[in-house]
Specification:
- This protein is an all-alpha fold.
- The protein has twelve helices and no strands.
- Helix 2 packs across helix 8 (about 245-260) and helix 7 (about 215-240) crosses helix 8.
Amino acid sequence: MQGSPKNRARFKKVTIGAAKSGVLIRIVDQGFWSAAFFLSNLAIAADLDVQEFAFYSTILAIVLVAVAVNRSAGVDSQIIANARNKISSATGIDRSSVWMTSAGLFLFLFAGILLVSLINRVPSYPFLLSVCVWAGAVLLGDVQHYYLVIMRARFHAALVSILYFVSISTALGVCHWLELDAMPSVAVGAAAHACVAGVVTASARLPSAKRRIQGRLALGLGLESLYVSVGSQLGPLILFAAGLAAPTAGLRLAYSAVYSPVFAVIQALYPLLLLRVLDESVSGSSSRRTMLRWSAFVFISTGAFATIGWVIIPHIELIPLLINSLEFLVPVGLSFVGAQMLEVGLLSKRLIWNPVRMNMLRLASVSLEMVLQVLGVLFAGVDGLIVCMTSIGVLKLALAAWLLRRGGRS
Protein backbone atom coordinates (compact mmCIF):
# COMPACT_ATOMS: atom_id res chain seq x y z
CA MET A 1 0.00 0.00 0.00
CA GLN A 2 1.05 3.57 -0.60
CA GLY A 3 1.04 4.51 3.09
CA SER A 4 2.85 1.43 4.35
CA PRO A 5 6.03 1.82 6.44
CA LYS A 6 8.04 0.19 3.64
CA ASN A 7 6.85 2.72 1.06
CA ARG A 8 7.39 5.61 3.44
CA ALA A 9 10.96 4.45 4.10
CA ARG A 10 11.58 4.15 0.35
CA PHE A 11 10.19 7.67 -0.22
CA LYS A 12 12.41 9.06 2.56
CA LYS A 13 15.49 7.37 1.06
CA VAL A 14 14.77 8.80 -2.40
CA THR A 15 14.15 12.27 -0.93
CA ILE A 16 17.42 12.24 1.01
CA GLY A 17 19.31 11.02 -2.07
CA ALA A 18 17.82 13.80 -4.19
CA ALA A 19 18.72 16.38 -1.54
CA LYS A 20 22.31 15.16 -1.37
CA SER A 21 22.66 15.21 -5.17
CA GLY A 22 21.21 18.73 -5.21
CA VAL A 23 23.79 19.88 -2.64
CA LEU A 24 26.63 18.33 -4.65
CA ILE A 25 25.50 19.94 -7.90
CA ARG A 26 25.11 23.32 -6.20
CA ILE A 27 28.63 23.12 -4.73
CA VAL A 28 30.08 22.27 -8.15
CA ASP A 29 27.95 25.01 -9.70
CA GLN A 30 29.00 27.70 -7.22
CA GLY A 31 32.57 26.42 -7.28
CA PHE A 32 32.93 27.26 -10.98
CA TRP A 33 31.03 30.55 -10.55
CA SER A 34 33.20 31.69 -7.65
CA ALA A 35 36.39 30.44 -9.29
CA ALA A 36 35.66 32.70 -12.27
CA PHE A 37 35.01 35.64 -9.94
CA PHE A 38 38.10 34.79 -7.89
CA LEU A 39 40.32 34.64 -11.01
CA SER A 40 38.95 37.98 -12.19
CA ASN A 41 39.74 39.67 -8.88
CA LEU A 42 43.24 38.19 -8.66
CA ALA A 43 44.11 39.15 -12.24
CA ILE A 44 42.81 42.69 -11.74
CA ALA A 45 44.57 43.04 -8.37
CA ALA A 46 47.86 41.90 -9.89
CA ASP A 47 47.53 44.27 -12.87
CA LEU A 48 46.27 47.52 -11.30
CA ASP A 49 48.03 49.96 -9.02
CA VAL A 50 46.61 50.80 -5.59
CA GLN A 51 44.56 53.81 -6.76
CA GLU A 52 43.04 51.93 -9.72
CA PHE A 53 42.20 48.90 -7.60
CA ALA A 54 40.57 51.12 -4.96
CA PHE A 55 38.38 52.63 -7.72
CA TYR A 56 37.51 49.14 -9.01
CA SER A 57 36.75 47.97 -5.44
CA THR A 58 34.27 50.79 -4.97
CA ILE A 59 32.48 49.91 -8.24
CA LEU A 60 32.51 46.25 -7.18
CA ALA A 61 30.74 47.22 -3.95
CA ILE A 62 28.00 48.95 -5.99
CA VAL A 63 27.70 45.92 -8.29
CA LEU A 64 27.26 43.58 -5.31
CA VAL A 65 24.52 45.82 -3.91
CA ALA A 66 22.70 45.83 -7.28
CA VAL A 67 23.02 42.04 -7.60
CA ALA A 68 21.62 41.45 -4.11
CA VAL A 69 18.65 43.80 -4.65
CA ASN A 70 17.96 42.21 -8.04
CA ARG A 71 17.81 38.73 -6.51
CA SER A 72 15.57 39.77 -3.63
CA ALA A 73 13.10 42.02 -5.44
CA GLY A 74 12.93 40.10 -8.70
CA VAL A 75 13.08 36.45 -7.60
CA ASP A 76 12.94 35.94 -3.81
CA SER A 77 9.86 38.13 -3.37
CA GLN A 78 7.90 35.86 -5.69
CA ILE A 79 8.78 32.56 -4.02
CA ILE A 80 8.18 34.03 -0.55
CA ALA A 81 4.77 35.30 -1.73
CA ASN A 82 4.06 31.78 -3.00
CA ALA A 83 5.02 30.28 0.39
CA ARG A 84 2.75 32.73 2.22
CA ASN A 85 -0.10 31.49 0.03
CA LYS A 86 0.94 27.83 0.54
CA ILE A 87 2.02 27.51 -3.12
CA SER A 88 5.14 25.55 -4.06
CA SER A 89 7.94 27.51 -5.76
CA ALA A 90 8.15 24.71 -8.36
CA THR A 91 4.99 26.08 -10.03
CA GLY A 92 7.01 28.94 -11.47
CA ILE A 93 7.44 32.70 -11.14
CA ASP A 94 6.71 35.63 -13.43
CA ARG A 95 9.77 36.09 -15.65
CA SER A 96 8.66 39.50 -16.92
CA SER A 97 8.87 40.86 -13.35
CA VAL A 98 12.44 39.55 -13.08
CA TRP A 99 13.51 41.40 -16.24
CA MET A 100 11.70 44.61 -15.27
CA THR A 101 13.54 44.60 -11.94
CA SER A 102 16.85 44.00 -13.72
CA ALA A 103 16.20 46.93 -16.09
CA GLY A 104 15.59 49.26 -13.16
CA LEU A 105 18.76 48.13 -11.44
CA PHE A 106 20.80 48.72 -14.60
CA LEU A 107 19.93 52.41 -14.20
CA PHE A 108 20.86 52.30 -10.50
CA LEU A 109 24.16 50.60 -11.31
CA PHE A 110 25.29 53.08 -13.92
CA ALA A 111 24.12 56.06 -11.85
CA GLY A 112 26.34 54.73 -9.03
CA ILE A 113 29.32 54.37 -11.36
CA LEU A 114 28.78 57.92 -12.64
CA LEU A 115 28.60 59.25 -9.08
CA VAL A 116 31.85 57.53 -8.07
CA SER A 117 33.51 58.85 -11.23
CA LEU A 118 32.47 62.42 -10.34
CA ILE A 119 33.63 62.14 -6.72
CA ASN A 120 37.04 60.64 -7.52
CA ARG A 121 39.35 60.99 -10.47
CA VAL A 122 38.82 58.28 -13.10
CA PRO A 123 42.13 56.49 -13.87
CA SER A 124 41.30 56.64 -17.63
CA TYR A 125 38.20 56.66 -19.81
CA PRO A 126 38.96 53.30 -21.51
CA PHE A 127 39.32 51.84 -18.00
CA LEU A 128 35.96 53.37 -17.01
CA LEU A 129 34.30 51.92 -20.15
CA SER A 130 35.69 48.47 -19.31
CA VAL A 131 34.36 48.72 -15.75
CA CYS A 132 30.89 49.72 -17.04
CA VAL A 133 30.74 46.78 -19.48
CA TRP A 134 31.92 44.38 -16.79
CA ALA A 135 29.42 45.69 -14.21
CA GLY A 136 26.43 45.38 -16.55
CA ALA A 137 27.47 41.90 -17.67
CA VAL A 138 27.86 40.68 -14.08
CA LEU A 139 24.36 41.94 -13.16
CA LEU A 140 22.76 40.32 -16.21
CA GLY A 141 24.64 37.03 -15.89
CA ASP A 142 23.93 36.73 -12.17
CA VAL A 143 20.15 37.16 -12.36
CA GLN A 144 19.88 34.46 -15.04
CA HIS A 145 21.99 32.09 -12.98
CA TYR A 146 20.05 32.76 -9.76
CA TYR A 147 16.73 32.31 -11.55
CA LEU A 148 17.83 28.85 -12.73
CA VAL A 149 18.97 27.92 -9.20
CA ILE A 150 15.69 28.96 -7.55
CA MET A 151 13.64 27.16 -10.21
CA ARG A 152 15.66 23.99 -9.44
CA ALA A 153 17.14 23.80 -12.95
CA ARG A 154 20.37 22.57 -11.37
CA PHE A 155 22.14 21.26 -14.47
CA HIS A 156 21.39 24.39 -16.51
CA ALA A 157 22.63 26.57 -13.62
CA ALA A 158 25.81 24.51 -13.37
CA LEU A 159 26.33 24.83 -17.13
CA VAL A 160 26.03 28.63 -16.86
CA SER A 161 28.70 28.62 -14.11
CA ILE A 162 31.04 26.38 -16.08
CA LEU A 163 30.69 28.63 -19.13
CA TYR A 164 31.44 31.66 -16.91
CA PHE A 165 34.67 30.02 -15.77
CA VAL A 166 35.57 29.12 -19.37
CA SER A 167 34.84 32.65 -20.60
CA ILE A 168 36.94 34.35 -17.92
CA SER A 169 39.78 31.80 -18.20
CA THR A 170 39.89 32.21 -21.99
CA ALA A 171 39.83 36.01 -21.74
CA LEU A 172 42.66 36.02 -19.20
CA GLY A 173 44.65 33.52 -21.28
CA VAL A 174 44.40 35.77 -24.34
CA CYS A 175 45.22 38.75 -22.10
CA HIS A 176 48.43 37.07 -20.94
CA TRP A 177 49.37 35.87 -24.43
CA LEU A 178 48.90 39.27 -26.08
CA GLU A 179 50.09 41.22 -23.01
CA LEU A 180 46.83 43.17 -22.70
CA ASP A 181 45.37 44.92 -19.64
CA ALA A 182 43.36 42.69 -17.31
CA MET A 183 40.27 44.91 -16.86
CA PRO A 184 39.19 45.06 -20.55
CA SER A 185 39.86 41.32 -20.90
CA VAL A 186 37.69 40.46 -17.88
CA ALA A 187 34.96 42.78 -19.22
CA VAL A 188 34.91 41.01 -22.59
CA GLY A 189 34.81 37.60 -20.88
CA ALA A 190 31.92 38.65 -18.62
CA ALA A 191 29.95 40.14 -21.53
CA ALA A 192 30.39 36.97 -23.61
CA HIS A 193 29.20 34.89 -20.67
CA ALA A 194 26.08 37.05 -20.13
CA CYS A 195 25.06 36.43 -23.75
CA VAL A 196 25.66 32.67 -23.52
CA ALA A 197 23.79 32.52 -20.18
CA GLY A 198 20.74 33.98 -21.92
CA VAL A 199 20.79 31.14 -24.45
CA VAL A 200 21.09 28.49 -21.70
CA THR A 201 18.26 30.08 -19.66
CA ALA A 202 15.97 30.16 -22.70
CA SER A 203 16.75 26.50 -23.49
CA ALA A 204 15.66 25.42 -19.98
CA ARG A 205 12.00 26.22 -20.87
CA LEU A 206 10.94 26.73 -17.26
CA PRO A 207 7.32 27.44 -16.30
CA SER A 208 6.31 31.09 -15.97
CA ALA A 209 3.35 31.77 -13.67
CA LYS A 210 1.33 34.89 -14.42
CA ARG A 211 0.27 35.69 -10.86
CA ARG A 212 -0.52 39.06 -9.39
CA ILE A 213 2.79 40.35 -8.10
CA GLN A 214 2.75 41.59 -4.52
CA GLY A 215 4.44 44.91 -5.13
CA ARG A 216 4.59 45.78 -1.45
CA LEU A 217 6.46 42.57 -0.64
CA ALA A 218 8.80 42.96 -3.62
CA LEU A 219 9.55 46.57 -2.68
CA GLY A 220 10.05 45.58 0.95
CA LEU A 221 12.48 42.78 0.14
CA GLY A 222 14.30 44.96 -2.37
CA LEU A 223 14.73 47.74 0.19
CA GLU A 224 15.83 45.24 2.85
CA SER A 225 18.41 43.81 0.50
CA LEU A 226 19.56 47.34 -0.33
CA TYR A 227 20.01 48.16 3.36
CA VAL A 228 21.85 44.92 4.11
CA SER A 229 24.05 45.11 1.00
CA VAL A 230 24.98 48.74 1.62
CA GLY A 231 25.75 47.80 5.23
CA SER A 232 28.05 44.99 4.14
CA GLN A 233 29.85 47.28 1.66
CA LEU A 234 30.12 50.31 3.94
CA GLY A 235 33.69 49.61 4.97
CA PRO A 236 35.29 49.85 1.50
CA LEU A 237 33.08 52.81 0.55
CA ILE A 238 33.97 54.80 3.69
CA LEU A 239 37.69 54.08 3.40
CA PHE A 240 37.66 55.02 -0.30
CA ALA A 241 35.78 58.26 0.43
CA ALA A 242 38.37 59.05 3.12
CA GLY A 243 41.14 58.64 0.56
CA LEU A 244 42.67 55.54 2.21
CA ALA A 245 43.53 53.53 -0.91
CA ALA A 246 45.70 50.78 0.65
CA PRO A 247 43.21 49.87 3.44
CA THR A 248 40.38 49.94 0.84
CA ALA A 249 42.27 47.40 -1.27
CA GLY A 250 43.09 45.30 1.81
CA LEU A 251 39.48 45.20 3.01
CA ARG A 252 38.22 44.27 -0.46
CA LEU A 253 40.81 41.49 -0.78
CA ALA A 254 39.77 40.10 2.62
CA TYR A 255 36.30 39.63 1.12
CA SER A 256 37.19 38.60 -2.43
CA ALA A 257 40.36 36.55 -1.88
CA VAL A 258 40.79 35.22 1.67
CA TYR A 259 37.17 34.34 2.41
CA SER A 260 36.19 33.72 -1.21
CA PRO A 261 36.09 29.87 -0.98
CA VAL A 262 33.87 29.73 2.10
CA PHE A 263 31.66 32.52 0.74
CA ALA A 264 31.29 30.42 -2.42
CA VAL A 265 30.10 27.33 -0.55
CA ILE A 266 27.69 29.33 1.62
CA GLN A 267 26.30 31.16 -1.42
CA ALA A 268 25.89 27.79 -3.13
CA LEU A 269 23.88 26.27 -0.32
CA TYR A 270 21.84 29.26 0.86
CA PRO A 271 19.24 29.02 -1.96
CA LEU A 272 18.71 25.37 -0.97
CA LEU A 273 18.25 26.46 2.65
CA LEU A 274 15.76 29.12 1.55
CA LEU A 275 13.75 26.62 -0.52
CA ARG A 276 13.79 24.05 2.29
CA VAL A 277 12.57 26.51 4.94
CA LEU A 278 9.83 27.70 2.58
CA ASP A 279 8.82 24.10 1.80
CA GLU A 280 8.71 23.33 5.54
CA SER A 281 6.52 26.38 6.01
CA VAL A 282 4.11 25.21 3.30
CA SER A 283 3.90 21.75 4.96
CA GLY A 284 3.48 23.28 8.45
CA SER A 285 6.62 21.70 9.99
CA SER A 286 9.32 23.38 12.11
CA SER A 287 12.51 24.69 10.51
CA ARG A 288 14.39 25.34 13.77
CA ARG A 289 16.69 22.31 13.48
CA THR A 290 17.55 23.17 9.86
CA MET A 291 18.49 26.74 10.80
CA LEU A 292 20.59 25.68 13.81
CA ARG A 293 22.61 23.27 11.65
CA TRP A 294 23.15 25.95 9.04
CA SER A 295 24.30 28.48 11.64
CA ALA A 296 26.83 26.02 13.08
CA PHE A 297 28.16 25.29 9.58
CA VAL A 298 28.61 29.01 8.77
CA PHE A 299 30.38 29.72 12.06
CA ILE A 300 32.82 26.78 11.88
CA SER A 301 33.71 27.11 8.16
CA THR A 302 34.32 30.88 8.35
CA GLY A 303 36.51 30.45 11.44
CA ALA A 304 38.55 27.79 9.66
CA PHE A 305 39.30 30.04 6.69
CA ALA A 306 40.17 32.96 8.95
CA THR A 307 42.79 30.76 10.62
CA ILE A 308 44.17 29.55 7.27
CA GLY A 309 44.41 33.11 5.93
CA TRP A 310 46.16 34.32 9.07
CA VAL A 311 48.83 31.63 8.66
CA ILE A 312 49.57 31.78 4.93
CA ILE A 313 49.10 35.44 3.90
CA PRO A 314 52.48 36.65 5.30
CA HIS A 315 54.20 34.09 3.04
CA ILE A 316 52.47 35.07 -0.24
CA GLU A 317 54.69 37.40 -2.27
CA LEU A 318 53.03 37.12 -5.70
CA ILE A 319 50.29 39.67 -4.83
CA PRO A 320 51.81 42.43 -2.66
CA LEU A 321 48.40 44.03 -1.96
CA LEU A 322 47.25 40.87 -0.16
CA ILE A 323 49.23 41.69 2.99
CA ASN A 324 46.91 44.69 3.51
CA SER A 325 44.02 42.27 4.14
CA LEU A 326 45.62 40.72 7.25
CA GLU A 327 44.29 43.29 9.74
CA PHE A 328 40.74 42.86 8.38
CA LEU A 329 40.43 39.08 8.74
CA VAL A 330 38.72 39.11 12.15
CA PRO A 331 36.30 42.03 11.53
CA VAL A 332 35.31 40.76 8.09
CA GLY A 333 34.82 37.20 9.40
CA LEU A 334 32.70 38.31 12.35
CA SER A 335 30.72 40.73 10.20
CA PHE A 336 29.95 38.02 7.66
CA VAL A 337 29.01 35.36 10.21
CA GLY A 338 26.84 37.82 12.13
CA ALA A 339 25.01 38.91 8.96
CA GLN A 340 24.48 35.33 7.78
CA MET A 341 23.18 34.07 11.12
CA LEU A 342 20.91 37.09 11.53
CA GLU A 343 19.49 36.45 8.06
CA VAL A 344 18.72 32.86 9.06
CA GLY A 345 17.18 33.98 12.33
CA LEU A 346 14.85 36.32 10.46
CA LEU A 347 14.03 33.86 7.67
CA SER A 348 11.06 32.13 9.28
CA LYS A 349 9.80 35.46 10.70
CA ARG A 350 9.66 36.80 7.15
CA LEU A 351 6.67 34.57 6.44
CA ILE A 352 4.58 35.96 9.31
CA TRP A 353 5.86 39.48 10.00
CA ASN A 354 4.54 42.53 8.19
CA PRO A 355 7.07 43.68 5.50
CA VAL A 356 7.01 47.19 7.01
CA ARG A 357 8.10 45.82 10.40
CA MET A 358 11.00 43.93 8.80
CA ASN A 359 11.98 47.01 6.82
CA MET A 360 12.11 49.21 9.90
CA LEU A 361 14.28 46.67 11.70
CA ARG A 362 16.70 46.46 8.76
CA LEU A 363 16.81 50.23 8.27
CA ALA A 364 17.51 50.84 11.97
CA SER A 365 20.27 48.21 11.95
CA VAL A 366 22.02 49.56 8.84
CA SER A 367 21.63 53.19 9.95
CA LEU A 368 23.29 52.39 13.28
CA GLU A 369 26.01 50.47 11.45
CA MET A 370 26.67 53.35 9.06
CA VAL A 371 26.83 55.99 11.80
CA LEU A 372 29.20 53.90 13.94
CA GLN A 373 31.53 53.09 11.04
CA VAL A 374 31.70 56.70 9.81
CA LEU A 375 32.40 57.94 13.34
CA GLY A 376 34.99 55.19 13.79
CA VAL A 377 36.90 56.25 10.66
CA LEU A 378 36.60 59.98 11.48
CA PHE A 379 37.93 59.62 15.04
CA ALA A 380 40.30 56.64 14.81
CA GLY A 381 40.90 55.92 11.12
CA VAL A 382 41.29 52.29 10.07
CA ASP A 383 41.50 51.09 13.70
CA GLY A 384 38.14 52.72 14.41
CA LEU A 385 36.54 50.90 11.47
CA ILE A 386 37.99 47.58 12.65
CA VAL A 387 36.59 48.04 16.17
CA CYS A 388 33.16 49.01 14.80
CA MET A 389 32.95 46.09 12.35
CA THR A 390 33.95 43.64 15.09
CA SER A 391 31.46 45.04 17.62
CA ILE A 392 28.59 45.07 15.12
CA GLY A 393 29.35 41.47 14.12
CA VAL A 394 29.16 40.37 17.77
CA LEU A 395 25.86 42.23 18.27
CA LYS A 396 24.36 40.55 15.21
CA LEU A 397 25.48 37.15 16.50
CA ALA A 398 23.76 37.82 19.83
CA LEU A 399 20.52 38.91 18.14
CA ALA A 400 20.60 35.90 15.81
CA ALA A 401 21.09 33.54 18.77
CA TRP A 402 18.07 35.09 20.51
CA LEU A 403 15.90 34.71 17.38
CA LEU A 404 16.98 31.10 16.84
CA ARG A 405 16.25 30.28 20.46
CA ARG A 406 12.69 31.55 19.97
CA GLY A 407 12.21 28.77 17.44
CA GLY A 408 11.79 28.34 13.73
CA ARG A 409 8.10 27.52 13.38
CA SER A 410 6.52 29.91 10.92
